[in-house]
From TrEMBL:
<dbReference type="InterPro" id="IPR009725">
    <property type="entry name" value="3_dmu_93_MTrfase"/>
</dbReference>
<feature type="domain" description="PhnB-like">
    <location>
        <begin position="3"/>
        <end position="134"/>
    </location>
</feature>
<dbReference type="InterPro" id="IPR029068">
    <property type="entry name" value="Glyas_Bleomycin-R_OHBP_Dase"/>
</dbReference>
<dbReference type="Pfam" id="PF06983">
    <property type="entry name" value="3-dmu-9_3-mt"/>
</dbReference>
<dbReference type="InterPro" id="IPR028973">
    <property type="entry name" value="PhnB-like"/>
</dbReference>
<protein>
    <submittedName>
        <fullName>VOC family protein</fullName>
    </submittedName>
</protein>
Amino acid sequence: MQVQPYLFFDGRCEEAVEFYRNALGAEVLMLMRMKDSPEPPQPGMVPPGAEDKVMHASFRIGETTVMASDGRCLGQPSFQGFSLSLSVADQTEAERLFAALGDGGQVQMPLAKTFFSPSFGMVADRFGVSWMIIVEA
């Protein structure tokens, strides 16, 4: 059994996937657009003009597969009540990833030494997804 995050970017999925590819080295495994669906969508599920939006994408960050979609393309993504956590081997990598994810985002807790890690910080990226970066002790 696996638990895999599925993120709904509400119209910005392709932009997000590209951001994670550049910021985190994400490997895109699959990207299917609404217009490429083998079955027509249910009435009201795809807004007019959303044919080129992402129906489903999957990408790998390290050893984890993350799935994503544009969802209903309403332009109101909401990522609350969770964070994605990146465990890294050293301070240099933590600083690099923290800066990359924070580009256009918002620092929630700067990288700093804690009782549980040589370096830990929290940042929300430009899409509102919260990330925790931790150096494994």
